[in-house]
Amino acid sequence: MSRLLLIKNYTYNQNLWIKILAILTLVVFYFKLFVFNEIYPLHDEIIGIDRFTDPWNFFRRNGTANHQLLSFFAFIIKFLFGYNFIFYRLISFVAFAVIIFYLLKFSKKPYVFFIFIFFITFSDLLFNYIYIFRGYQIYALVSVMLFYYLNLLILKQKEKYFNYILFLNFLLSCHSFYTAYIVIPILFYLFLITLTKNTVNRIKNTFLYFITPLSLFYFFLIYLEGFLLSTSIDIKTNGALIYLINFLSFNNFFLFFESGYNSIFIEPSFSTTFSFKYYNLFDYFFNAEGPEGSLNIIFLIYITALVICLYRLFFIKGNNKHLEYIIIFIITFYLFHTFFYKTPFKRVHVGSSYFFIFYIISNINFEFFKKKYVNFSFFMLTLILLSLAKPSPNFWETKNFIDKINTFAGSCEEANQFDEYVIWILINYYPDRCNYRYDYQKNKNILFSY
């Protein structure tokens, strides 16, 4: 009798229960990822700390290494609180929390929340990048926002949503080049619908919210990159005023611009020429190499979304199939880039995976799922998933080096016996432990005590 009463109360307060479940999810994930999880940074995280968290370098593109929005938030954190690696990692976690917020705005149905948590917890890639200090979770958040406002644009046909989508594409285009897998297909879709309705106004807004700000941003980025590469002036040594005067002098504008352009757009990761290449996609998705492991859940997400997309295109009558076209554009762009250029890093799939997850849950609406006992079952199953979720030790990439530093009891001068990689980790991950200077004759960092 008490069980029936519980189900009855659950039904009457479904919105409240889902909100409680969302909060519980964030609390459980926080403790599992930040309290009970051992903290060892990835190599790429240390690169981010080293190169992109100070006011004189967080705009540096450094090829494809910098994730611009992440570096901006990290700079704000360092400016307000000083260096704090946990705070840096919380940027991604907060982005995930905002994704949960959009999920609840999209639907408060228990089976939707279960499907979302199922995909996240069973994928090492998706679950672990919830807390990693890299820009992929921010990419995922903006991708979810794009899906949300695309859906509103299609349903309500309000121009403000068109403008929101343009601005979000601008943010992703600033963030990093790997966001092109989402940005280019969506821009292509916006171009097509611009030809059919409000053409003049939409072209004007495209320049206002996307083309003009993006051009100005990359103009600044290219010049800054070239200035930093071509001048020996250092802000720490010469001071901010001298640095700023030289930056604004434009004495070597064309030299700086060419150098910056080559560094950002013609660096090695872009040097591969376009030609058809055979790739074993099955091996790409199912091999367990790298900390991300197998992409089997990502493959399942893509296949599920594609099946739903094709079913809606060919078997559902009606003209409202714009999201299906976008899904096809994204998959086509992925395949084109893979076979004619190169396969993307596994972690690049984080953003598009969230976009596809939201597409999947937006199309699952069976009457069976609306039954009271089924909803309660999904609630309980979600609790089980939360209890089973755990971070992967594959992401403890620098564990051996961090342990070596932590167990070392000697002085900073004695720590110079470490190899250069360990010294580099010590300088950046433990910035208050030792001072250092760069020895240009030995081409290495030299540690010494404060």
Explain what this protein looks like in three dimensions:
With 450 residues, the protein is mainly alpha-helical. It has two domains: 2-395, no CATH class; 399-448, no CATH class. Helices cover 67% and strands 2% of the residues. It has a two-stranded antiparallel ribbon. Helix 5 runs parallel beside helix 8. The N and C termini lie far apart (69 Å). The model is unreliable at 1-12 (pLDDT under 50).
The low-confidence parts are 1-12
Query: Biggest sheet, open or closed, and with what strands and sense?
Result: 2 strands, antiparallel
From the helix content, strand content and strand pairing, which structural class follows? mainly alpha
Question: Can you count the helices?
Answer: 21
Q: Give the strand line-up of the largest sheet.
A: 1-2
Which term fits the overall shape?
Answer: globular
In round numbers, the mean pLDDT is: 87
Number of strands: 2
What's the number of structural domains? 2
Radius of gyration: 24 Å
